[in-house]
Design a protein that fits this description.
Strand order of the largest sheet: 1-2-9-4-7-10
Number of helices: 10
Shape: globular
Strand content: 15-25%
Distance between the termini: 30 Å
CATH class of the largest domain: Mainly Beta
Number of domains: 2
Order of helices and strands: EEEEEEEEEHEHHHHHHHHH
Number of strands: 10
Helix content: 40-55%
CATH superfamily of the largest domain: Regulatory protein AraC
Largest sheet: 6 strands, antiparallel
Structural class: alpha+beta
């Protein structure tokens, strides 16, 4: 009998919200994952059993949480984390990995941050509804990407509504619209020599303010986001084409192949040639 499911979302561009991976797992005793750092937000909801989360707060302190059924926990991008199943009552959980411009805002409304990663619903019935919504992704992985993005919006709406730590936030400021435009501008121009100054000027915002607000909303600096876009596209081309690596590097904004290879290996842990061999 299958004891886990792992689905991967297609590589489509959805700016406000995008799922990356989803699944569920029935863990064996003392099964652990980590220490590991995620590139995106990862939310687990515990269906049954128990386990322990070791979560690094923003100040570097490690907090230990003993968790059981009808509780959830959040892992943030760039955060070191480790979680392990109980020896006698190992947990079964469902999980979603996602990101986007609106994610931090939605999670704050649900009372979830790096320093406050534990989630509880107001009632057990709400918890059952939330886990069923998360399991929907695994049961309907063949649905269109637009359908799954819609389901992710509905899930986050429930996450906020059901939260025992629900918070009301101010409406999105006007300048946040310009950050949205900046993301589009980077995605349309990543293949050429593009600077943060140029993007800030395009948005008609002070560079320092622009960089700070971009990081607050997106979770990475404009330069980090630009590199991520370039390397994500490079990985896609390495996987689906037979183009020479030098040509792919140029198409993705790296006229120097050595610089490209160094950046790619730093991000993916493998050289472009090794990554292509493992993923083609």
């Amino acid at each position: 009998m299958k004891n886990h499911f792992h689905g991967i979302f297609p590589n489509d561009n959805y700016l406000d919200l995008r799922p990356y991976q989803y699944g569920w797992e029935t863990c064996v005793p003392l099964h652990s994952f980590g220490p590991f750092i995620r590139n995106h937000y990862l939310f687990h909801y515990i269906i049954s059993g128990r386990g322990t989360l070791y979560s690094h707060a923003a100040n570097g302190e490690i907090h230990e949480y003993q968790l059981g059924a009808n509780q959830g926990f959040l892992i943030c991008p760039g955060q070191i984390n480790l979680y392990t199943a109980d020896a006698e009552q190992p947990w079964k959980y469902v999980w979603l990995e996602f990101d986007g411009m609106r994610v931090k805002e939605f999670l704050l409304k649900a009372g979830l941050t790096q320093d406050h990663p534990i989630y509880r619903t107001q009632t057990n019935e709400q918890g059952l509804q939330l886990q069923e919504h998360m399991l929907y992704f695994s049961a309907n992985s063949a649905k269109s990407s637009l359908h799954l993005v819609g389901q992710l919006f509905l899930f986050l709406d429930e996450l906020i509504e059901f939260s025992a730590n629900h918070q009301e936030l101010e409406e999105t400021k006007e300048h946040d619209y310009y950050i949205h435009e900046a993301v589009i501008y980077i995605q349309q121009n990543y293949q050429r020599d593009l600077s943060v100054d140029e993007v800030a000027n395009f948005c008609k915002l002070n560079r320092n303010y622009f960089s700070r607000r971009f990081k607050e909303l997106i979770g990475s600096t404009p330069q980090e986001f630009l590199i991520q876009q370039r390397l994500t596209k490079a990985a896609e081309l390495l996987k689906i084409t037979n183009q020479p690596i030098k040509n792919i590097a140029i198409q993705c904004g790296y006229p120097n192949q050595l610089h490209f290879s160094q950046s790619f290996k730093k991000h993916y842990g493998l050289s472009p040639r090794e990554w292509r061999k493992e993923n083609s």
